[in-house]
TrEMBL record:
Protein name as catalogued: Aliphatic sulfonates import ATP-binding protein SsuB
Assigned keywords, A-Z: ATP-binding, Hydrolase, Nucleotide-binding, Transport
Organism field: Roseisalinus antarcticus
Catalytic EC class: hydrolase
EC number of this enzyme: 3.6.3.-
TM region(s), chain numbering: none
Annotated InterPro entries: AAA+_ATPase, ABC_transporter-like_ATP-bd, ABC_transporter-like_CS, ABC_transporter_ATP-bind, P-loop_NTPase
GO molecular function, one term: ATP hydrolysis activity
Domain of life per record: Bacteria
Family as reported in the entry's similarity comment: Belongs to the ABC transporter superfamily.
Domain ABC transporter: 10-249
Length: 274
């Protein structure tokens, strides 16, 4: 299987972000063009402070661009509600809720599901949650408290919670960064399986180039601040991808090429100052 995204979902046109004003302003993102297709799995990589998380904030409407425009499904961002799922490095599960209740939470608060929550929470919604927990190997822990789970199990539950309400966009910000290598690789496979089955549109921010190359269908490399996209590559390894892929020569060469792009891309501000 290979990803074949075609329908434009989100378009950045000369989108830039500056924090602060005047002499105290910091340009975080230079005017940027970026197109995200429906069903795409985009990874953003680059050094710290290059604007990766700024793009996530723009996409989720937490932050408005300083310059340029963002369009979603052909309309200006904000004109149409976007259903967003999010998972971060910290699972942020609510400790007073069971695993099942944590995963069900978006169905309680996100339209249009919340309108039917009282009627469906013990029937259809519970079945939906349990089916997802079954897929990630957590069904036997559905009634457990979240503090009884390991770090990897909490992130599995976190992914389920991010996907349960069928988001238009799944935003992942270093979701596996705090886990050991073996657990991280196991969760790469879990995430890949969920993406193949449900095909959400994903933006993944990560510092792990192997993670980006294993999971993504596209990788954008960003420069040191002020951030800009210096490389946008399609990743065409056949899916489903086995973890042994990371030892293949083509995979290793891709990771090295991405690293070289990051290491050898100059900081424009420093170059201009020189």
């Amino acid at each position: 299987m290979t990803a074949q995204p075609s329908e434009k979902l989100m378009v950045f046109e000369k989108v830039g972000v500056t924090y602060g004003t005047g002499d105290d302003g910091t340009e975080a993102l230079q005017p940027t063009d970026l197109t995200l297709s429906k069903g795409d799995f985009l990874a953003l990589v680059g050094p710290s402070g290059c604007g990766k998380s700024t793009i996530l904030k723009l996409v989720s409407e937490v932050l408005a661009p300083t310059t340029g425009n963002i369009f979603f499904s052909g309309r200006e961002l904000g004109a149409t509600p976007i259903r967003v799922g999010m998972a971060f490095q910290s699972a942020s599960l609510l400790p007073w809720m069971t695993v099942r209740d944590n995963v069900m939470l978006p169905l309680k608060i996100v339209p249009p599901f919340k309108a039917d929550y009282r009627a469906k929470r013990r029937g259809e919604y519970r079945e939906r949650v349990d089916a997802l927990l079954e897929k990630v190997g957590l069904i036997d822990f559905a009634d457990n408290n979240t503090w009884e789970l390991s770090g990897g199990m909490m992130q599995r539950a976190n992914l389920c919670r991010a996907l349960i309400h069928e988001p238009d966009l799944l935003l992942l910000d270093e979701p596996f960064g705090a886990l050991d290598q073996f657990t991280r690789e196991e969760l790469w496979q879990t995430l890949q399986e969920l993406w193949i089955e449900t095909r959400p549109t994903v933006i993944l921010v990560t510092h792990d180039l192997r993670e980006a190359a294993y999971l993504a269908s596209r990788i954008c490399v960003m420069s040191p601040r002020p951030g800009r996209i210096v490389d946008d590559s399609v990743i065409d390894f056949v899916r489903p991808r086995d973890i042994d892929l990371v030892f293949e020569p083509d995979f290793v060469a891709l990771v090295q090429r991405l690293r070289n792009k990051i290491v050898h891309t100059p900081n424009i501000r420093k170059r201009n100052a020189a």
